[in-house]
Amino acid sequence: MLTRRQSLTLGTAAVFAPLLPFPALAAPQADWGSIEYLPEVTSAHVGPRAVTLWQPPADVVPLDEPLPVIVAQDGGNLFDAAASYSGTAWELDRAMQAHIEKGGQAARIVAVHSGAARSMEYNSETVLAALDGEMADLVLRSCEGPLASNAYLRFLAEELLPMAAGRMALAQGPAMILGASMGGTIAVEALMTRPDVFAAGAALSAHLVLFGPASQAPDFGPFPEDGGKRLAAAWRKAAAAHFPAPGGTRLWLDRGTEDLDAFYPDSHIALTESLLAKGYVAGDDLMVRVDKGAGHFETFWQARLPAVLDFLLPAKG
Q1: Is the full-model pTM beyond 0.90?
Q2: 31, 70, 105, 242: least buried by Cβ within 10 Å?
């Protein structure tokens, strides 16, 4: 996986666009429920970025009723196609409507828009530390700077969630985290390193191969021929050492089979096998899906949302 030859075949803007920063294009609008758009939330740990707070309609769930919270990455792509960098959105508000109307648990959503440091903030410092020096150097150069997942998760835990709790009625206890591509990587990192804050997460087309967009420059290589195996070994080591014991953490992990997702099996399988070895139960606290024929784009993640929400927010009783 991700040998030098394969990296060159990946080197197109269309394929690698989901790894680039997603700027806030406009204030997103909701078709169902209400949105509060905060164009510039500042932090002591990371750079400023936009945040979208979403909640169900007040006539469906009273505004003062505490609900679980989902912290979602790449917030500009989640609700409104007009605000999405790709012109396509997940339609997360409509997915939540369908989920609630069929009896699933309701939730409020804190959607964090990504910034210029996306590939550094969303990547895994834990797995980087488990890599050998050559591979670690390649990852850092591909992301064009030091990784900052620890700082980003401090922002979510210590600043953003308390701020959101002051604006929406949130239930006590751990939050959930959701993301796709590199947003899926930080979702896995959050469960692995901050189980005090996040108890469940969904990582769609999780970019566990770690490499950022700069790896597609013609002069970036060479990639080691065994690079995929070395990445997979780092995921095994990191998950074995840092993922919490089963019983309090739940993970949805999926991938497609086309585009960038075609390069994901080794690392996804390594993480899955490591969690199963720790005692996680497939179909219970670990849900792994392979969506054959699916690629790396919002429409594919939108299609998987109903099942993801069923996993994160199952019907009570």
Answers
A1: yes
A2: 31
